[in-house]
Amino acid sequence: MSLRYIFTLILSVISFLSHSQSFTTSDSLKIDSLNKVGYEMRLTDPEKSLVFGRTALRLSKKTNYINGSAESHRILGIGYYYLGKNDRAISNYLTALASFKETRNLTGQAKVYNNIGNLYKEVNYEKALEYFQKALTIATKLDAPDIVAGHYLNIGIINYRTKDYELALKHTKKSYEIFLKLDNPTGVTLALQNTGVIYNKLNQHKKAEKILLEAYARAKEANLNSTIASINLTLVAIYMKFKNYSKADQYLKEGTRYAIIGKDTKLQSDYLKRAYELERKRKDYKQALLYLQKLYTQDSLELQTTISKKFGLFEEQSKFQAREKESAIKLEKAKTNRVVFTASIAISILAVLIIIILFLNVQKKAKTNHQLKILNEEISVQKENLDTVNQNLEKIIDERTRDLQIKNRKLSEYSSHLSHQIRGPVATMKGLMILEQENLIEDEEFIKEIGKCVNEVDDRIININDVLHNLSESGLIPRVVDKETKS
Question: How far apart are CA 61 and CA 157, in angstroms?
Answer without folding.
Answer: 36
